[in-house]
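User:
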Amino acid sequence: MKSNATILITSVIFVLVISCNGGKDKSVKSEKEQNIETVDSVQNENVDISSIEDQIIDKILELPEVKDRADYIVKETNGERHLKIWIAASPKETGSYYLIKAGEDNGMSLVTHFDFHVNPKTLEIKYYDVLTDSELSLSEWREQNKE
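Assistant: Predicted structure:
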């Protein structure tokens, strides 16, 4: 009888730990941005970079193209999938910028919809075109997408 109680208590604790997820995921709560999730990047123990990273994520979330894509994904998947935003590389890895990705988990793989380079000092966002291996200013990118 005592072992059954121990198993039950252990199981409840395990479920609680798993379900609370350690507070790692950041949920976007505003009405327009509820379709976008952010994923924490690797943390640097020596420097408090979370403030800069949070600012970068917030700036990416403000982009109309990102908001529109998030809404599109939710609509097309009947709410089963959401756009996710994550920091794929830091200036330590790239030499000068953050690589930010926005994409979705389609059940088999993580599909990137947008790649951005963000200057950590100015927070300037540039669209990264993987096909041409080039950066475009947001205005150049938007002009290119009008065509």
